[in-house]
Amino acid sequence: MQKAARTTSKVGNCINRFLGDKKTFVNTCFIVGVVILVIFALAKIIEYIVLIYINKISIPDLFSWKFMDYRYTVKLALAYNPYLKNPYPSIADNYNMEYSASYLPLCFILFYPFAAICKSIQFVPIPEMGLKWQLYLSLIVYMAVHLLIIGLLSKRFLKENFKGGFKYFIIMASSAAILYPVLWGNIVLTAYVFLLAFFTFYKSEKKALRELSLICLCIAGILKLYIFLFGIFLLKEKKFKEILRCVLYTAILAFVPFLFYEGGFSNIPLYISNLFNFATDYNRFLPTNFSIQAGFYSLFITFFNDDALYFLGDISLSLVAIVFIMTIICSLITKSDFKRALMVSFTSCLVPSVSYYHSAIIFLIPLLYFFKEFDNLTLNKRAFYFFVFFITTFALIIAALSLTVLHTYIMLLALFIEYIDILSSKASDKKIMFLEGSELNLKCDRIKKTRLFYLVSAIILTIIYLLIFILYRLTPGDIPAENLIPAFKPVFMAIYAVLTAGFISVIAVYLAEKIKVKKH
After folding, report:
1. Which are the contacts of 18, defined by CB distance < 8 A and separation ≥ 6?
2. Sign of the CA dihedral 331, 333, 339, 341?
């Protein structure tokens, strides 16, 4: 018993050193970020060398399917009408004969300067584009511009000097949230740039910058529709005039660009049809999807046959409605921008029926707020939020194994923790107004309940993960661990070991603080 207590105390002290000081925390994350980038790059190079050496893949094949989202968007941006079923009928493309776009035309207008760099290969089939240097020149320019802007805006948001800003940039650049869309060349990078610009300037003292931030929010929302939910920040501050201007800007930027393409406004019904087909596709039930529907289906499919797939999907819509409504209510109640950003980010990924891992890039917004408000958080909350961000934003191996369903459960639990925390705080504040003589006792009681709540949350998380692990072991097919070959089973178990260590860390911090309070 004493040995266990000493071990717990040592773990608690290690966590206290790591999370107790912001400077230490950031420096450690920076070093880990550099190591991750180096290891990730080396691992990719070694992987490709081995694949070529064992004749598993040839050098041309190695490049033929890389950056698929980027190639797809290039094709659409250069087409006369991206909303037709096949804007390039003369190309025999064995990748996808139907290039029907589910983006609004502004996306392709913004993307066009980068696409124009490789216009000479416009009529080359998608697999063969990977063998053309023009594609990679365009891609390098696209990534360089976007990552540079992300670094500069993050620096300004955190009000850091160049050295400090560089550290935060490396931390974010080493996250799966950045690396995943970079490896695919997804246009979500552009959406994130505009979203980050909104958060950087919407509280600026300069009127021009505040107005620019509104336009940036509208553009980000047009690129990725779920980003419009971040408008809750304007609603919270009762900026009704700004909200009306956002509606006007959105209407102009969403529909006027249709005139730049062949067919004009007649393409609007085609766009809506393409968007609906994408949102109702069978893929929305795959475990590679963040959505609540996918998580709900993956959890219960073990106990039902495939005929229940759509039935389960319909039931999960009630949970979608609950999450959406609760996020709006709690976002308007809380005074913390960090909590609001966390809830809106997670909800933006969970509510849409199709939301793949590249959507995780918007988690960098609450991560920036986490760094910003780090000193105002208790040690318990620092440990809990660090663990949440570690799983949702930095867990590269989970993304690689297509186990994003794990992220879904973590986000749902984090959301419900925030809902209860915010609503209970609101109720406690009302009690304090009527019981002035008991203010101190109520506050102390709240502190105890908060600690107990996080302890229970850690236990619940452990049970959920054990349940998922059992489901994985019992499931004969490819759900919930899609395409998980037997060789990866030890890796899968290692992931659970890391998760368990995270939960034990949260409990250790709780016990360490409790012991510290008793001593004093």
Report:
1. 24, 25, 28
2. positive
The count of C-alpha atoms lying within 13 angstroms of the C-alpha of 71, restricted to the half-sphere facing its C-beta, is 26
The alpha carbon dihedral of 13, 17, 21, 22 has a sign of: negative
Residue 88 zone, left/alpha/beta (φ > 0; ψ -120 to 50; rest): beta
Q: Which residues of 28-58 are buried (b: 16+ CB within 10 A; e: fewer)?
A: ebbeebeebeeeeeeeeeeeeeeeeeeeeee
Q: How many CB atoms lie within 10 A of CB 376?
A: 9
| 1-58 residue pLDDT tens | 455 445 555 666 667 777 888 888 888 889 888 888 888 788 777 777 777 777 666 6
What does the DSSP 8-state code read for residue 394? I
> Whose CA is closest to 76, among 109, 31, 29, 27?
109
CA dist 277 and 287 (Å) reads 19
State the Cα–Cα distance between residues 157 and 228, nearest whole angstrom: 20
- The answer to whether 289 and 283 are in contact (CB under 8 A) is yes
CA distance 57 to 50: 9
| DSSP reduced 3-state for 159 | coil
Give the integer Cα–Cα distance in Å for 99 and 89.
10
What is the tens place of the pLDDT at every residue in 416-452?
888 888 887 765 555 444 444 445 454 555 555 555 5
Please enumerate in sequence order all residues whose Cβ is within 8 A of that of 479, keeping only pairs 6 or more positions apart, or say none.
287, 297, 298, 301, 302
List CB contacts of 133: < 8 A, sequence separation 6 or more: none
3-class DSSP assignment, residue 429: helix
